[in-house]
Each structure stands twice: as structure tokens, then as C-alpha cells.
């Protein structure tokens, strides 16, 4: 597959990093020679200096033979324009990054699709959705819904109170049990478990279940004493914070701290009256105490500085906040944040890259989530008629190492998978994989 990325900025660099290990033919276009030099020295790809809206530059990049053109510059107008040109020059698929919620309106997306922009990606709103999902369940590090929640994956940090520690998984996750453990993050190691593996204290375990059994999962992992989030504090009044606050459940009260006085004025105009905007630094412990941090269940740090977000979350934890969320855009800091037990980590690059990665695959793929904390992918595949995955029961498929099938959705109903499960064409199949190229997995489904 040939892929052209326009824009060697944060998301473009991160996506290039992922794709350079996939043996795809990759070209990165950017107007800035220094940005190209940095990305070209790190990854196996070709760079081309110039404007992505230039027909000459696109032809030099080989646009007529391109399977996927991805426009990721900070200028949404240039992204859309270059996608329209790329489409006219016979690129098979195009995707553009945008920075305005208006582009997410169905009629607007349809209009641009008719013009040749196959997909519009708005990283801030994608990140906001992940933040809200994290706040809805204070005892969960990450929640991922399949088919509007027909199946649910829960990432949970296990503590001493967990009732299912130190027992072989084949005794815990049998065909009649209401959950499967699809992955375990232990220290720096990611484990796709077998029946002999056991859960240990301080593991980050990923449970696949159906919605009605979420209270049961909460009970067996010892999280019943965790209070639900009713009050939340935000640090940083950027676009991601605004999108999250605009979509916050009505039962949650919110305060947002912003150090820039002018931005505070903007926030008062952008946000509902039930969100209190505070001009101040959320790293100021005395200010947090004055504003009621001890009666707050969640703290969300979304400033542009990863170190500040991590430190602020640590301070909030010391003040008794159980649920913390930190935006960590620097990938090198993610493992550090995990080791400090920060909680939910938000990385817009990884979220956007997962959505873009869907367009690379030939099988019907409904959703992909890259789980940075586990260095793993969760993908939702729809098998075609007579595809390999439909010919034998799961236990006889000979799945490659590092892959497990967490569950399926059939006719709108979520189902867990056992060895005797026979997958059918049209099912939505949730695949969890670590250190495996998704292009290799999709061969089972086409």
C-alpha cells in the first residue's frame, strides 16, 4: 500500500512512526525542510519538500498510484483543498484533519465526501469523547464500547481488594462466565493471556463483558467503594477541554482553571453557566483547596504541557481525588505517567492515528483504538462470506501469537467468545492484539 502524509507535525510524525514499521510505501510532504529532516532521520520513509496543494509536488510524490492520502497540517483549509486535489489526481482514499466542530455535522461531511474528502478527523472531539467515557466510570482507567455498548471493554487497575487475583484464568473465564480477560499490562510487559496465566496485584487488566455485567465486574475487582464522579475540575482551557465540558453529562458539576485572563473571558462565552471558570493556576494547592478539591471526585489536566499535567494530577491525588485524567502528548512521558499511577492518559495523536488506520484496511473495520498504556490495538472487524475466520470454531483457527478474540456482536446482541464459538459473516468481531500488524489479521476476515 502506498500512503502519502501531508504535514510533518505531531499527528503526522506519530502516524509515520506507526506506519514505518508496517512495510508500507510511505511519503511525507511538508513545506518545512527542518521538520522533514527530523522525521526522515528517524523512520523508513521518503520525504518531499513543498506544498501539498501543489499539483506538481503531488505528482512527484506519485499521487496517481496512492492508496491513501492523509492531510495533517494545522491549516484545515489546506488539508481539505489538498485532499480535493489528490482525489482529482486519482488517490483512492483521502482523509483531512480539521479543527472546527462544524465539520462533524453529517450534512457537511457528506458535502465534502462528494468533493473527494473521504474522511474528516477532528482530534479534539475524539479526545473529548475518551475523557467523558473515563469520567462516567470513576473506577475504570479506560472504557471502549462496541456497537453502542453491546460489548464493553474495561481497563481496570487491580489492587489488593480484587477478588480474582492469583487464580488461573481458565478457572475464572470459562464459557459460562460473564467476562474474558483479553490483555494484561504488567510493568512494561503486555500479556495476551492464556488459561494458565493469573492476575496479579497492580496489573492493568482489560475485561471484555456485556453491559449488564458491569456491576458484577466492579464487585469482583473490589471497586464498589469508589464513588461515582459528580464534581470534576479541569486544568487548562484549550479546545479539548471546551469540547469535553460542552458534552459533559448534566449531572456533573464542573470548574475549570485557566491562567490566561483573556481566555477566561472566551470560556465564559463558550461554556454553559453551570461551568465555573476560575482565573488561576490549578497547580496552586491552596487555590485547589479553597475551590473544594477535597469534595471533588475527578481532576482532568489538559494544558499543553505534559509535565505540568502529570504533576497536577499527582497533587490532586495527594489531596484525595480518586480519578485523574492527564493529556500527555509526548509519547516518551506515557510510560512515566503510567508508572506514577496517574490514571487515564489522553493522547490525541494516538486517538487520531487509530481512526486514520481504519482506512488502510480492506476488511470491513468499524473501529480501531490504540491503547497506549498496553501498546496494543483493539479492532472491530466484520468478516466477509466464506472468510477464513468463519470456516472453523475459534479454537481451531490457529490464531497467531499476540491475538485474542474478545467477543462478537450478532444481530445487535453482544456475546463473549469461547473455543467452540463459530463466527459468522456479518458478525462484529472484537480483536485484541499486541505487537501484530493489523494487515496480517485482516486476512482472516476477507
TrEMBL record:
Keywords for this protein? Ion transport, NAD, Potassium, Potassium transport, Transport
Q: Where is the RCK C-terminal domain?
A: 141-223, 365-446
Q: Which GO terms describe its molecular function?
A: potassium ion transmembrane transporter activity
The keyword Transport belongs to this UniProt entry's keyword annotation: yes
Q: Which InterPro entries match?
A: K_uptake_TrkA (IPR006036), NAD(P)-bd_dom_sf (IPR036291), RCK_C (IPR006037), RCK_C_sf (IPR036721), RCK_N (IPR003148), Trk_Ktr_HKT_K-transport (IPR050721)
Question: What SUPFAM superfamilies does this protein's entry cite?
Answer: NAD(P)-binding Rossmann-fold domains, TrkA C-terminal domain-like
Any Pfam family matching the protein: TrkA_C
Q: Tell me the ranges covered by the RCK N-terminal domain, including all copies.
A: 1-121, 229-346
Identify one Gene Ontology CC term for this UniProt entry: plasma membrane
Record PANTHER family: POTASSIUM CHANNEL PROTEIN 2-RELATED-RELATED, TRK SYSTEM POTASSIUM UPTAKE PROTEIN TRKA
Name of the protein in question: Trk system potassium uptake protein TrkA
This chain's source organism reads Hallella colorans
Amino acid at each position: 500500500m502506498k500512503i502519502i502524509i501531508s504535514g510533518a507535525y505531531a499527528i503526522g510524525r506519530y502516524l509515520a512512526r506507526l506506519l514505518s514499521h508496517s512495510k508500507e510505501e510511505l511519503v511525507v510532504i511538508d513545506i518545512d525542510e527542518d521538520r522533514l529532516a527530523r522525521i526522515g532521520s528517524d523512520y523508513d520513509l521518503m520525504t518531499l519538500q513543498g506544498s501539498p496543494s501543489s499539483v506538481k509536488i503531488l505528482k512527484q510524490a506519485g499521487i496517481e498510484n496512492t492508496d491513501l492520502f492523509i492531510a495533517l497540517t494545522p491549516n484545515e483549509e489546506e488539508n481539505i483543498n489538498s485532499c480535493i486535489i489528490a482525489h482529482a489526481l486519482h488517490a483512492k482514499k483521502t482523509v483531512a484533519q480539521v479543527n472546527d466542530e462544524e465539520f462533524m455535522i453529517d450534512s457537511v461531511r457528506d458535502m465534502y465526501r462528494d468533493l473527494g474528502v473521504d474522511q474528516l478527523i477532528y482530534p479534539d472531539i475524539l479526545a473529548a469523547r475518551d475523557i467523558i467515557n473515563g469520567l462516567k466510570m470513576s473506577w475504570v482507567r479506560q472504557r471502549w464500547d462496541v456497537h453502542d455498548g453491546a460489548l464493553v471493554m474495561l481497563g481496570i487497575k487491580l489492587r489488593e481488594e480484587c477478588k480474582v487475583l492469583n487464580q488461573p484464568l481458565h478457572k475464572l473465564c470459562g464459557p459460562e462466565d460473564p467476562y474474558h480477560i483479553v490483555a494484561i499490562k504488567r510493568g512494561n510487559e503486555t500479556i495476551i493471556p492464556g488459561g494458565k496465566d493469573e492476575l496479579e496485584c497492580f496489573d492493568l487488566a482489560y475485561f471484555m463483558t456485556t453491559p449488564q455485567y458491569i456491576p458484577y465486574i466492579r464487585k469482583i475487582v473490589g471497586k464498589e467503594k469508589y464513588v461515582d464522579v459528580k464534581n470534576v475540575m479541569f486544568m487548562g482551557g484549550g479546545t479539548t477541554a471546551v469540547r469535553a465540558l460542552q458534552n459533559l453529562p448534566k449531572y456533573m458539576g464542573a470548574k475549570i482553571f485557566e491562567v490566561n485572563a483573556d481566555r477566561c473571558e472566551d470560556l465564559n462565552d463558550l461554556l454553559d453557566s453551570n461551568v465555573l471558570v476560575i482565573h488561576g493556576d490549578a497547580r496552586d494547592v491552596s487555590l485547589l483547596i479553597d475551590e473544594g478539591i477535597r469534595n471533588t471526585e475527578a481532576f482532568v489536566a489538559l494544558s499543553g504541557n505534559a509535565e505540568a499535567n502529570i504533576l497536577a494530577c499527582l497533587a490532586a491525588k495527594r489531596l484525595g481525588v480518586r480519578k485523574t485524567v492527564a493529556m500527555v502528548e509526548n509519547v516518551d512521558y506515557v510510560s512515566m505517567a503510567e508508572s506514577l499511577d496517574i490514571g487515564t492518559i489522553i493522547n490525541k495523536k494516538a486517538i487520531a492515528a487509530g481512526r486514520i488506520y481504519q482506512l488502510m484496511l480492506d476488511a470491513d473495520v468499524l473501529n480501531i483504538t490504540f491503547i497506549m498504556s498496553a501498546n496494543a490495538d483493539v479492532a472491530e472487524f466484520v468478516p466477509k462470506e466464506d472468510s477464513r475466520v468463519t470456516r472453523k470454531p475459534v479454537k481451531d483457527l490457529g490464531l497467531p501469537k499476540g491475538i485474542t478474540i474478545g467477543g462478537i456482536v450478532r444481530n445487535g446482541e453482544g456475546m463473549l467468545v469461547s473455543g467452540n464459538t463459530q463466527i459468522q459473516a456479518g458478525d462484529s468481531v472484537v480483536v485484541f492484539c499486541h505487537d501484530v500488524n493489523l494487515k496480517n489479521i485482516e486476512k482472516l476476515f476477507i
